[in-house]
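## tool: complex_structure
## caller: assistant
## args:
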Amino acid sequence: MIRDITIGQYYPAESPIHKLDPRVKLFTTLIYIIALFCFKGVLGLVIITAALAAVIKLSKVPFSFMVKGLKAIVVLLLITAAFNLLLTPGDVTLWKWGVFQISDSGIKNAVVMVIRLIYLIVGTSLMTLTTTPNQLTDGLEKSLAPLAKINVPVHAIAMMMSIALRFIPILIEETDKIMKAQMARGADFENGNLIQKAKAMIPLLVPLFVSAFRRADDLAMAMEARCYNGGEGRTKMKPLKYNAQDRKAYLLVIVFLILVIAARIVLPFPM
Amino acid sequence: MPIILDKINYCYSQGTAYQIQALKDINLKIDDGQFIGIIGHTGSGKSTLIQHLNGLIRATSGTIYFNGEDIYADDYNMKDLRSQVGLVFQYPEHQLFETTIFEDVCFGPKNQGLDKKTVELRAFEALHNVGFPDELYDQSPFDLSGGQKRRVAIAGVLAMKPQVLILDEPTAGLDPAGRDEILNLIAKMHKELGITVILVSHSMEDVAKYVERIIVMNSGEVMYDGTPKDVFHHYKELEAVGLAAPQVTYLMHELKEKGLDVDLDATTVEEARNSILAALR
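## result:
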């Protein structure tokens, strides 16, 4: 059940996308999100779809992995679609009941919004699927490095993020073990109404929190024992370095953004 | 109430690239009142095996009969099975959650749907059986020492009055004194309560002294199944799979090689002493 969570999961493979510098991927994701929210018209959508499809193909990650991530947001998609569909006033009203109405722009908005959200999840999960958590935080730390000059604790943020990511699988495993231990004592996590189910969580959550705190404590102790004192003066065994591929990727991403904006100006229809 | 395992197979992550066969064609019969030790090194499938016995893991193929009933039948009451086959996991930290020790032990019988009075009576009885001091009943279970926590965890399962008690590495992380205490306690419970006890361990030393039957697991298969004496005869094969016979076995074999006529079947220090004294006389 809890093992189905795929958001934030890494899929090991040998592909040009996997080999890219994490900073390139972070930047690409940012540009991709910008493009998603500023495209207008079918031409823009076609460009984004083609780019996304090409990157998915290159990444060698099975498409089913990305679709799995979508399952988690089905409810969100439905709610967004319903709100946009029923609450947007437009030129042509097809149906009306109280405050609810279905209009031409409502339909348009609903479709565009759902497409945006699906693309957003697929695109961002593509980044986490092709980048290990360590690379990701490395890239983040380096990209945000200029902010350290204005006293933003960049290294601490990156370290917290990598620890948090590292703990996800550990805590999932721990949850599994605690659930089993309590089920062996007759605990029932599946049946009953909402209140009973919420109450049944107590025997699971208390040991989980206790162990999470204990682990955090142990980790802090272990880090201190190895003289960890923040990022100052710390060197890396494999420092991030751009190569020709990364430069090409940057160029492509910028061309991509220009194309999407151009499409918006040239052919902003029919959306 | 015997437990019969018929051709049990179990695969982790079946149908993916990470598929691992954890159990291969396990056939076992566990009789009433036996004291059994399951031995195997890490990853041999022993923990997976015991979780099948109370239905926490469902076998990929094969059948398990408890008291003559197929536990995978559609109308079988799993909750009932879990109260009859009590399983104590390795880390007591995974199950202690209540504010007081006494209430934590009440959790199991409460889930069985018993009335308050019976629940408390059972909790009291269970804590008494594990030799837990009365004056600590109202303390928080999180303040206890490792050995005491383990006692509370065992009491928590014992309070459901199981017919079969399974303990997964009950001595892991305890000091030698704590280890002996827990093992003696388990042996005492087996004798006094007349229940079937299954002890999972990776230490032959722990198990040899107490159990009447040893099941050796190796890479998902039952390698040996017999009395400690029978199993320790194969001490060379055991070594080959990363296990060791008790030190006494090695000593006796060495003495024999040196020409002293001792009994090679001795598995405990006591037996070895008697045998050596007899040989020297």
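## assistant note: DSSP finds eleven helices and ten strands in chain B. The beta strands of chain B are 3-12, 20-30, 35-39, 61-66, 69-70, 85-88, 164-168, 196-201, 213-218, 221-226. Handing back to user.
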